[in-house]
Write a structure and sequence with these properties.
Elements (H helix, E strand, L loop, with lengths): L1 H9 L8 H7 L1 H6 L3 H32 L11 H46 L3 H5 L3 H43 L1 H48 L1 H6 L3 H53 L5 H43 L22 E8 L10 E8 L4 E5 L6 H8 L7 E6 L2 E2 L5 H6 L1 E4 L10 H6 L7 H10 L3 H5 L18 H15 L3 E5 L7 H15 L3 E5 L11 E6 L2 E6 L1 H5 L5 H12 L1
Parallel strand pairs: 3-8, 3-9, 6-7, 7-8
Antiparallel strand pairs: 1-2, 1-4, 4-5, 9-10
Helix pairs in contact: 2-11, 4-5, 4-7, 4-11, 5-7, 7-8, 7-11, 8-10, 8-11, 15-17, 17-18
């Protein structure tokens, strides 16, 4: 829960308003450009909306003065004609407000949809190193929280900011026109109230955040206790956990009460200040009325305009805060869009004839360290040569670099030294998407997407026919158990395939690989976590899959790779031994022989 709290706090961090930050924020207008006509129209209607709002108090003044007979000109002299004009202004305001909101919503939703698509496209094209250094929650936050913040800015903040500026300028101009003396008094009082409100409001928000953090800490206690309930009961520590939770809750209550006291003071002060300022203005205005310098309508309009100006000034504080959050969001989105992507195709293209592989693979003098741990080489010196159709097994203790070879073959990473060749061609000379289209990976931990069984198998070749999907399932020994489901191939597998057993998920993954019909196959410990019955079915499915394909098998159970054409034994990133099973088992002090003996002993 503490982690969740931190994540939430990261959703809308603020950025300082600087020239560089504003320049970064211009990314928004790049996405507004296709809808600039509607955007400009929205801006125009904001001006019309602000104008009609600010006209209403003036017309109210005319209405009051006409009732008192204070109107000097003949234009709009009767209360009836003024009332009709006021209704007309309200009707225009209704139309302008509707068009403003509609246009900004139209522009904002479309621009943000375009931005989300760009971010997702950019994200999915990133190299594996990008994902290795970032949390999934952080990346999803970019496309949800950050873009939503930008969306709020486009659909609301820009409009409110422009409307606020117009209201402030027009309002101050009109109250100065009505009474320069009263304007001087108002402008000497209102800014002081606004500044005090800003300082007080910032302090109260800080107090509220502390209370929320303390509540999150108490929720952490609940989460930890319930997750480890067996330990709590085994140690008979129910009393301890209750006391720990009570302590956190008491601190939450204490902070909340303290926050309530300050909020009460703040609200009381604001009520006193605002109404006190109104009393001061009205008192001074009453004196001007008595001396004949001001009409009752003028005083009424002045008070209403003052409320508009004061409210706008107070609203600028929230707008400023929202602007800071938007700048922070645009900076992070901009950073993501500037990241270098892989050279992969974003359309479903066929493999060109000149790039079709036969299955010969050569790795020569490979040295590799992960970018985040450059000082720790994972592969120190590795060479292998696989001919088309051969089965190459790679074994060794944990941390030897077996799975890293998989990443290098699929070009998830590039080697620091050495070269990888396919059919005598350098790997980098083959377009990345066309290379991977001819390879398939069956990992140890199978990830199924949260759709149907059919969709998960068809993921290997989305253009495949229904007959091809069924055929792949049969070859993977999956058709029988799939047909046993009430909904058959339309059975939902659940998130990450949780509704299926490990063996079932593995066979669906194999069916997916069979449907892809790869030239080169990579199996990363595909049977290490299965029971004996499931392993037997999966091994038979793997045998069907490996026929006539160059296969690289990362093996934990050595019994599964005894028929391999070549076995490489890795230790500390170096090939210690290589040969067939019979050759390696015959080495008196060989690592493969000792690993084999150890597994036989464990079994």
């Amino acid at each position: 829960m503490a982690r969740n709290r931190d994540t939430n706090r990261e959703e809308s961090p603020k950025a300082k308003i600087t020239k560089e930050a504003m320049k970064e924020a211009m990314i928004i207008f790049r996405y507004l450009n296709p809808y600039r006509g509607s955007f400009i129209a929205g801006l125009i209607f904001i001006g019309f909306s602000s104008g009609t709002i600010m006209a209403f108090p003036y017309l109210l003044k005319r209405l009051i003065d006409s009732a008192h007979g204070d109107v000097k000109d003949t234009l709009l002299a009767s209360p009836g004609s003024i009332a009709l004009v006021m209704i007309g202004v309200l009707a225009l305001q209704m139309v302008f407000s509707y068009l403003r909101i509609y246009l900004f919503t139209y522009v904002g939703e479309n621009a943000v949809a375009d931005m989300r698509q760009d971010i997702y496209k950019r994200m999915i094209m990133m190299p594996m190193n990008f994902f290795a250094q970032r949390r999934v929650g952080e990346l999803s936050s970019r496309i949800t929280a950050d873009v939503s913040q930008i969306q709020d800015a486009v659909t609301g903040l820009l409009a409110e900011l422009l409307r606020g500026v117009l209201t402030l300028v027009i309002g101050i101009g009109l109250i100065f026109y009505i009474s320069p003396k009263m304007t001087a008094i108002m402008l000497s009082v209102v800014p002081v109230i606004v500044v005090i409100a800003l300082v007080f409001g910032k302090f109260i928000r800080k107090m509220s955040r502390k209370a929320q953090d303390q509540l999150a800490d108490s929720n952490t206690v609940v989460q930890e206790t319930l997750q480890g309930i067996s330990n709590v009961k085994a140690f008979s520590n129910e009393w301890y956990e209750i006391a720990r939770y009570q302590k956190h809750i008491r601190e939450v209550v204490s902070l909340a009460i303290k926050n309530g006291r300050f909020r009460g003071l703040f609200v009381s002060f604001m009520l006193f200040s605002v109404f006190g300022a109104i009393v001061l203005v009205v008192w001074y205005g009453a004196g001007l009325m008595q001396s004949g310098q001001l009409s009752f309508g003028d005083l009424t309009a002045f008070v209403v305009y003052t409320a508009f100006v004061g409210g706008t000034m107070a609203g600028f504080a929230e707008m400023f805060s929202q602007l800071q959050k938007t700048l922070g969001a645009t900076q992070r989105v901009r950073e993501l869009l500037k990241e270098e992507t892989e050279q992969v195709s974003i359309v479903n293209t066929l493999v060109q004839e000149e790039n079709k592989l036969k299955g010969n693979v050569e790795m020569e003098g490979i040295v590799f360290s992960y970018p985040s741990r450059k000082e720790m080489p994972v592969i120190k010196s590795l060479s292998l040569n696989a001919r088309s159709g051969q089965q190459i097994a790679i074994v060794g203790p944990s941390g030897a670099g077996k799975s890293t070879i998989v990443s290098l073959l699929l070009r998830f990473y590039e080697p620091d030294e050495g070269k990888i060749q396919f059919d005598g061609r350098d790997a980098t000379s083959i377009p990345l998407s066309e290379l991977r289209k001819q390879m398939a990976l069956v990992p140890q931990d199978i990830l199924l997407f949260g759709g149907t069984v059919y969709e998960n198998i068809a993921y290997g070749n989305p253009d495949a026919s229904e007959e091809a999907v069924f055929s792949a399932a049969k070859q993977a020994n999956a058709h029988e158990f799939i047909s046993g489901f009430p909904e058959g191939y339309q059975t939902m597998v659940g998130e990450r395939g949780v509704k299926l057993s490990g063996g079932q998920r593995q066979r669906i993954a194999i069916a997916r690989a069979i449907l892809k019909d790869p030239v080169i196959l990579v199996l990363d410990e595909a049977t290490s976590s299965l029971d004996s019955e499931s392993e037997s079915l999966v091994q038979e499915a793997l045998y069907n899959l490996m026929k006539n394909r160059t296969s690289f098998v990362i093996a934990h159970r050595l019994s599964t790779i005894r028929n391999a054409d070549q076995i490489l034994v890795l230790e500390d990133g170096v090939v210690k031994e290589s040969g067939t099973h019979q050759e390696l088992i015959g080495l008196p002090d060989g690592l493969y022989r000792s690993l084999n003996k150890l597994q036989m002993f464990e079994e």
